[in-house]
Amino acid sequence: MALVRILVDGYSLLHQWPELAEGAVRHSEAARDALVDVLTQYQDACGTPITVFFDGRSARRSKPKNASGKPVELLFSTAGQTADDLIERAAHRFQAYGEVLVVTNDFAERDTVRGLGGSTASCDIFIGMIQDSLADLAENLDRHNRAERARFRRKI
Fold first, then answer.
1. CA 18, CA 133: separation in Å to the nearest integer?
2. pTM: predicted TM-score of the whole model, two decimal places
């Protein structure tokens, strides 16, 4: 089956990636925005839709809003539920459409998702995937730009 969606435990990934939004508190809006920015770049490179789940009780906004319709979908849990609950539900619901990849450092969560038939990755592995993909994209763009500059110079 093809990978249909990447489901990310947002705070788990933020805690594992201290270089991202250096100086920002891990549960801050600035850190979340930096994570969404890099995930948007990754989604552009890989083409697979990404949903990021955050525990709503940790959000520092007066009332966090779920953001969909943007390149990376953001979902915040509400009172009485956790991001893990939402991830498990989404992994189960997407199962009929293809394989999902869940990114978290929570071992119990990864076991649950594997039991539902999904794939999992630790945050370290996923960070490496992002960095490799963005480096490949930058290299391809650089190669393309050099070729276009050379082609343009030949026409003059």
1. 19
2. 0.84
Pairing of strands 99-103, 50-54: unpaired
Q: How does pLDDT run across 118-127, given as a tens digit for each residue?
A: 999 999 999 9
Half-sphere exposure of 71 (CA within 13 A, CB side): 15
Fold annotation for 3-155: Rossmann fold (3.40.50)
Measured CA to CA in angstroms, residue 15 lies from 2, 3, 72, 105 at distances of 29, 25, 19, 10
Q: What backbone torsions phi and psi does residue 146 show, to the nearest 5 degrees?
A: -65, -45
In the chain, what are the domain boundaries? 3-155
Residue 82: DSSP 8-state = -
3-state secondary structure string across 26-53: CCCHHHHHHHHHHHHHHHHHHCCCEEEE
Cα gap 35→52, rounded to integer Å: 9
Tokens 């990849």 belong to residue: 101
Say how many residues make up the chain.
156
